[in-house]
Amino acid sequence: MKVAYSIAFLSLSAFSVSAQSTAWGQCAFSINWTGPTTCVAGTTCTVINAYYYQCIPGSPSSSTTSTTSSKPVTSTTSPSGTCAPNSPPASAGTLRFAGVNIAGFDFGCNGDGNCEASAAYPPLTQYYGADGAGQMTHFVNDDGYNVFRLPVGWQFLTGNQPTGTLVDANFAEYDALVQACLVTGASCIIDIHNYARYGGKIIGQGGPSNDIFASLWANIAAKYATNPKIIFGVMNEPHDVPDINLWAGSVQAAVTAIRNAGAKTQLILLPGNNWTSAATFVSNGSADALNKVINPDGTKTNLIFDVHKYLDSDNSGTSAECVTNNIAEAWAPLAQWLRCHGRQAFNTETGGGNTASCALYICQQVAFQKANSDVILGYVGWAAGNFYPTYPLGETPTKVGTTWTDTSLVTACLAPK
Ligand SMILES: *[C@@H]1O[C@H](CO)[C@@H](O)[C@H](O)[C@H]1NC(C)=O
Ligand SMILES: *[C@@H]1O[C@H](CO)[C@@H](O)[C@H](O)[C@H]1NC(C)=O
Ligand SMILES: *[C@@H]1O[C@H](CO)[C@@H](O)[C@H](O)[C@H]1NC(C)=O
């Protein structure tokens, strides 16, 4: 989630009302659908769920999938430029992860990396917050979710000091949320929600040194070194980082520190520039720069690219209306690049309002991600935890008696079951 900024209205090429739906467009709707009901050649109108049908590239009786699946790549300039058009393997179709952000410890964090420690608001009843533990238990048991992202400000963990030294009392509060996540059996993403900055200055580029950032991660990783369910999210939404290669060096310092602290096999999420936008991950140079980050043993095993994408008109995640499924602009070119380079990405923030437009487009996005599950590990919705259910992008369930009720977008598109 980032502060709003203005860009041009994104085109809706993947979903326009015409005689035939384009690849990934909608081709029927169970209720009141008046748009096209047939698909362009090379795609098949496929039932996604009770809410919509979608033109999926490929068909049982055809082998012409490359025509449609390669289209987004040719419309995108990649710095690498050499990836041949590619398609998901037949085994793709099931995402490894689906989850929700459990927000609260990040409250007070601004895009300039100012996160006032006292503004952090633990989403736990014992600290007078929402019942984050109960929410996660519900999400796992009733919805089939299996991952939660637990954002926290650097300043909260270190008591407003630009160091790597954890304040025990504060870390104990955050760890209570991590443990509440782990007890559900889900995987738990530790997310430092600082936008590549501390107090307005960029890590390794005028702000805290890479050594300080590495010591922060060494100290956190040491706490969870032996737990395979912990995922290390190196940094939330870097943006306006002038030198992406220097930033990749900061990410490398964190990766080396996490591995050397004993967390040798867990997933580590590597974030690119421009608010981790999935749409510009390749074109803006983040992919090439972060593709050089390695484990101490020289491999890239379990180093996963972290990408975000919202569906509102300025990709800010601040509007309750969605205008795109992001497939042509973001997910298709990204999937091509990832497959070509043997890498994977995890969409750790996405979401929209509890509106008909978001139900349409997010269902389409999730369907595409599932179809490309060989290179896209999954998605994490924004957000529950301490957000009220009335927050425009709220995925916070409400509890009456012993029964939890989900928001409509969770029910329509995001919950795995
Ligand atoms: C379908 O259309 C009917 C008649 O216009 C309307 O009453 C109903 O609410 C619509 N259903 C949905 C789910 O939009
Ligand atoms: C950042 O990404 C958005 C789409 O997510 C794009 O419209 C915008 O142009 C990008 N900005 C830069 C500076 O690359
Ligand atoms: C990435 O975006 C920045 C603006 O945020 C721009 O200055 C830079 O040239 C872009 N890099 C590439 C490789 O496109």
TrEMBL record:
<dbReference type="GO" id="GO:0030245">
    <property type="term" value="P:cellulose catabolic process"/>
</dbReference>
<feature type="compositionally biased region" description="Low complexity">
    <location>
        <begin position="60"/>
        <end position="82"/>
    </location>
</feature>
<keyword id="KW-0732">Signal</keyword>
<dbReference type="Pfam" id="PF00150">
    <property type="entry name" value="Cellulase"/>
</dbReference>
<feature type="domain" description="CBM1">
    <location>
        <begin position="19"/>
        <end position="56"/>
    </location>
</feature>
<dbReference type="Pfam" id="PF00734">
    <property type="entry name" value="CBM_1"/>
</dbReference>
<dbReference type="GO" id="GO:0030248">
    <property type="term" value="F:cellulose binding"/>
</dbReference>
<dbReference type="GO" id="GO:0005576">
    <property type="term" value="C:extracellular region"/>
</dbReference>
<protein>
    <recommendedName>
        <fullName>cellulase</fullName>
        <ecNumber>3.2.1.4</ecNumber>
    </recommendedName>
</protein>
<feature type="region of interest" description="Disordered">
    <location>
        <begin position="60"/>
        <end position="88"/>
    </location>
</feature>
<keyword id="KW-0326">Glycosidase</keyword>
<dbReference type="GO" id="GO:0008810">
    <property type="term" value="F:cellulase activity"/>
</dbReference>
<keyword id="KW-0378">Hydrolase</keyword>
<dbReference type="InterPro" id="IPR035971">
    <property type="entry name" value="CBD_sf"/>
</dbReference>
<dbReference type="InterPro" id="IPR017853">
    <property type="entry name" value="GH"/>
</dbReference>
<comment type="similarity">
    <text>Belongs to the glycosyl hydrolase 5 (cellulase A) family.</text>
</comment>
<keyword id="KW-0624">Polysaccharide degradation</keyword>
<feature type="signal peptide">
    <location>
        <begin position="1"/>
        <end position="19"/>
    </location>
</feature>
<keyword id="KW-0119">Carbohydrate metabolism</keyword>
<keyword id="KW-0136">Cellulose degradation</keyword>
<dbReference type="InterPro" id="IPR018087">
    <property type="entry name" value="Glyco_hydro_5_CS"/>
</dbReference>
<dbReference type="InterPro" id="IPR000254">
    <property type="entry name" value="CBD"/>
</dbReference>
<dbReference type="InterPro" id="IPR001547">
    <property type="entry name" value="Glyco_hydro_5"/>
</dbReference>
